């Protein structure tokens, strides 16, 4: 009996779980170890944590009682103010019935009280910063999923639509749901509205090179004279390149051509399971460096300008650092849109980056050979679930509507698979271990990298509202690379501020020319703010590094690189379901 009394709470719980047929069968040794590792903090919360939890529960019960009593106050003629209101940014409850209909209003307030209590409980938990951030994220995600707006019986707009259409909206919604289940993704834009090469990605050009990983497209000049040095664009490989060429009103490519640039762009291939062993080195050698060589060989000019975006920017950083000093002298300039070198604060995606989640996902990668593009798309959508998931669930499935055409959302849904080896290298070395900023921390193409070796003129461009690549993190490149770095900060988001920011009718502003040696916020305070798009300001910077102007080429490619398919090429038409 004495031995039994001396058992620790941990061993008691372990014995209970192991002997419980419903629980123990689902818990392996690793799960047991993980659970036991957090037991001390769960078993003995501090007095402050207990007090915070108690306050949360008392406040919830007090407000819930007020809400339950409000109908009686209304019946007695006393009236009652709302106990809780949705925030000004919360657009889920914009339908008038959420205010005017007492049942709907009661449901809304009950939900808001419960979700607030859930989130405040997490806020009071005594966990390390990352664990709390992850728990807070998934708690908010669960709370968003349970909103009454997401269910047909509790959404007044859905009920009204069903009555008005005599149930046809529900039939149409079920049809939309079955179609999306087959495709594996929620439809966010009318899929029939855009045709590659016609009303999207329509700037004229030709594929002038193709290998197993990339197509290189050269675009037809739009002016009589072009700059000597070609501009090579390295887009991210997680989406298709045509974000730089959506349509005439938004096309970065077309605008660059109008400024006299001789533009080449990489079109990354959508990885198949057979390509799963392709490495980061392969993407540099067969992708980035090869595209550089193609542009040089076709133009006959050794020096080139480079522009890259997001993970494409990270590739170019490693490609430049892996070059010899002599090779880097052939890079006239390098521009990086929303590109991190220091990953110590990777923004909202940090909730997906820890060893447990990486290990768990590795099993999926080992099975499939690739990171399915839809997986990455779903993860990004989870970061803003109400706008990117539940809005479309309500619109498509509950209301039975087809989302309107939207070129940016069409592109956003057109994802690409990534090879297992390449993706694992990127996540573990950059996001998880943050080794790119460390001299010798990462080896690419046989060379230990030091980003301080990148001595070419660089321009980093980031956006104030970018939730995927925080601008304050990208700003740290100024300290890591050196003095020959320009920084431009634009209003807008990850896409809308950078790749899409056409000068015509631009309502944004940007900052430039801040004092060197300051931290990011002090730099912004010292910088000049200018209304309009950063594109024209940047092009003036680029023009100084582009050489003389010469007669525009009459033909694309040359004898060695014969023009093949018309832009946008063939790789861009391969989708994730086709190759995943």
Automatic annotation (TrEMBL):
Protein name: Class I poly(R)-hydroxyalkanoic acid synthase
Keywords, comma-separated and alphabetical: Acyltransferase, Transferase
InterPro entries linked to this entry: AB_hydrolase_fold, PHA/PHB_synthase, PhaC_N
GO function terms (MF aspect): acyltransferase activity
Keyword Acyltransferase carried by entry: yes
Pfam families: PhaC_N
Poly-beta-hydroxybutyrate polymerase N-terminal domain segment(s): 89-255
GO BP, one annotated term: poly-hydroxybutyrate biosynthetic process
Species the sequence originates in: Neptuniibacter caesariensis
Transmembrane segments: none
